[in-house]
Amino acid sequence: MSQVAYHKVKVDDIHIFYREAGSTSLPNLLLLHGHASGSYTFKNLIPSLKNSFHIIASDYPGFGESDIPPRSTYEYTFKNISSTINKLTEILKLNTFAIYMFDYGAPIGFHIASRHPERINGIVSQNANLYEEGLGSGFDLTKEYWIEPNNLEKRNALKDSLTPKSIKWTYTIGIPESQLNRIGPDSAILDIHYLSRLNSAKQNEALEIQLDLLLGYKNNVELYPEWQRYLRENKPKLVGIWGKNDPFFLPQGAIAYKKDQPEANIILVDGGHFLNEQIPEQVAEVVKKLL
């Protein structure tokens, strides 16, 4: 499959959108996207990988082109989303695969990997955190909400991080000025668009779903030790490629991977959160070298 193909498949009555590229005879690579985004975040990365891997990049429930089931019928937690994505891999008969984790892709990917270690061929962590020391100042308001989860003022304060201005800022913060022209406007525009989508009950819940997940990220931090144990016990091939100027996930989080997988290859880059947008060709070479 030389071109990217676009599909939808039903997973537990939810239509999940995914991109597919590369021959099915090649090793499988599952791309897991981040916060308030979708599989389109990998649009510049997939062309450099499709001759080496059979690629699946899905949109999570409530994200991108996948269905948005109402919050009253679908539990928007990282554990539940990971269950949906794992079922997608089973439907697509991905018996074994490597996982490319970016941002929210870390908790979703580690939920899957820790439950099915025999299926995982390797892990790429691109600003995908697994250590408390990796949580940067970009999480300060979120941590305040964790302390007072019933405080509506704390919840509403997080909406500022999901305004068009804030979303555009996340794509450029930490990137050297000489490389800012590598960041196109389209991914941020799509993020903004999908945050305004209506769910299947014609309710505008997209923003509330993101707030639910920010609250639920606290559970991921509590599970960090379990996922770290998975690394120690299974020693998957692992590379971390990290923008060292990321205000959300600090480079200390990348370096910490070596505590539990000493053979991990950690690469720190002069960049921000979205290395997949900033230097996709370099990221692709790192992935191919590992896998």
TrEMBL record:
Residues 27-277 form the AB hydrolase-1 domain. This is AB hydrolase-1 domain-containing protein. Gene3D superfamilies: alpha/beta hydrolase (3.40.50.1820). GO terms for molecular function: epoxide hydrolase activity. It comes from Kwoniella dendrophila CBS 6074. Pfam families: Abhydrolase_1. InterPro entries: AB_hydrolase_1 (IPR000073), AB_hydrolase_fold (IPR029058), Epox_hydrolase-like (IPR000639), Haloalkane_dehalogenase (IPR051340).
